[in-house]
Design brief:
This protein has 14 helices and 14 strands. By secondary structure, the protein is an alpha/beta fold. The structure holds glutamic acid.
């Protein structure tokens, strides 16, 4: 989309490009160049192999019919079946889903899973829909995409505004279409339907481990460290709890209504309890600050755990953190990444920091395939080994190649699918 230019006194400055697909393509290209791959590899990996757009008719509770648009992108299946969540959100676009599928491929490469990346999305606002309307939408989506998904083809999972109940409906719909029970079709399921212990908290656990490793590199003691978490959804709320329990001071949290700040540390257990009773939390308090004000507060560790494009060229100069760990997908633009890195801030990128979710999804799928279920300690121990190894790989690549952590993560993440595509004779 063409963007208007902004006049800033002497020279005309183009506004920052917030297109997440274009940004990820830029970094993929840089990573492949650094690794010495020829142009056709970039041509193959810059877009998903497949992208399905579907229209889903849903009977609403008032008797009317509403038609929703959904997507499923499969980025690259050279390594194995594609894997990634399904997002329910009013702002979902085809281009965003494509970028998210590429990020899933990178995550799988970074934590070394036998998967490529996939992603789905439905343009809807689940906060305005009833339980039964959501069930009909979830089932309709699976009917619409059933031909291209499956336990050894493409395996969905939760993402923004989707949860284990939605996974259960999707599993049930898929099993009735295929006429056999196939728990490996989807991950993030309730435990009683073949979910894995530890999946619910996996993304936050993974981020916690990445904060621990980054803090070690910076010589920061987590006890008493000041942490800010943007977003109080699955990742942000569990992460706040884990950081609080580890003795860190969570000085600010936020949700879509605004942010709460206390320099002495917030009472996270109380806020979680309020959120569970009311559905949202910051709107219950008068003395809120804005999300933007919160991001610019002084702290040791800043964790964007909400949506895309939160740290941009506009506010990156004002970020006063020692470490930024991206729990959300795409919260920092490329221009902002450059500014943060130049200012000496250690940035742990999304494709590494948030890979704990898909790692435990993989464990869930393995358990489904084996029909043998692991205790929580085993899941957690394997998650820790995987994430710590991935952090070290990316950190060492950044050091040895003299690049920032985002480019290093892309270099680590892209290599396996580039090699697999080459062995298959695709490029
Ligand atoms: N939606 C999550 C992500 O963005 C998890 C995907 C999965 O478990 O497959 O990483």
């Amino acid at each position: 989309m063409e963007q208007p230019s902004v006049t800033t006194g002497q020279k005309t400055k183009q506004p920052e490009n917030l297109d997440v697909l274009a940004s990820t393509q830029t970094v993929i290209k840089q990573a492949l160049n650094k690794l010495g791959y020829p142009e056709p590899v970039y041509e193959l990996l810059k877009e998903p192999l497949r992208m399905l757009t579907v229209r889903i008719p849903v009977r609403m509770d008032d008797g009317s019919v509403k038609i929703f648009t959904g997507y499923r992108a499969q980025h690259n299946d050279a390594v194995g079946p594609t894997k990634g969540g399904v997002r329910f959100h009013p702002d979902v676009t085809a281009s965003e889903v494509k970028a998210l599928s590429i990020w899933m491929s990178l995550k799988a490469g970074i934590v070394d899973l036998p998967y490529g990346g996939g992603k789905g999305g439905i343009v809807c606002d689940p906060r305005t829909m009833s339980f039964r309307e959501l069930e009909r939408l979830s089932r309709g989506y699976v009917r619409a995409i059933s031909q291209i998904v499956g336990p050894s083809k493409d395996i969905p999972a939760p993402d923004i505004f989707t949860n284990s109940q939605i996974m259960a409906w999707m599993l049930d719909e898929y099993s009735s279409i295929r006429e056999f029970d196939s728990p490996g079709f989807i991950t993030g399921k309730p435990l009683v339907l073949g979910g894995s212990r530890g999946r619910e908290t996996a993304t936050a656990k993974g981020v916690t481990l990445m904060i621990r490793e980054a803090a070690k590199k910076r010589g920061i003691d987590l006890k008493g460290a000041r942490v800010i978490v943007q977003g109080f959804g699955n990742a942000g709320s569990y992460l706040s709890k884990f950081m609080h329990d580890a003795g860190a001071k969570v000085i600010a949290i936020s949700d879509m209504h605004g942010a709460l700040y206390n320099p002495d540390g917030l009472d996270i257990d109380y806020l979680l309890d309020r959120r569970d009773s009311h559905g949202s939390v910051t709107n219950l308090f008068e003395d809120r600050i804005t999300n933007r004000e919160m991001l610019e507060l002084e702290c040791d560790i800043l964790v964007p755990a909400a949506v895309e494009n939160q740290i941009t060229a506009d506010n990156a100069h004002n970020i006063r953190a020692n470490i930024v760990v991206e729990a959300a997908n795409g919260p920092t633009t490329l221009e902002a990444t450059k500014i943060l890195v130049e200012r000496g801030i250690l940035l742990v990128p999304d494709v590494l920091a948030s890979a704990g979710g898909v790692t435990v999804s993989y464990f869930e799928w393995v358990q489904n395939n084996q029909g043998y279920y692991w205790p929580e300690e085993e899941v957690e121990q394997k998650l820790e080994e995987t994430m710590v190894q991935a952090f070290e790989n990316v950190y060492q690549t950044a050091q040895s190649r003299g690049v920032d952590m985002r480019l290093a993560a892309y270099m680590v993440g892209v290599r396996k699918m580039a090699e697999a595509s080459r062995f298959r004779g695709w490029v």
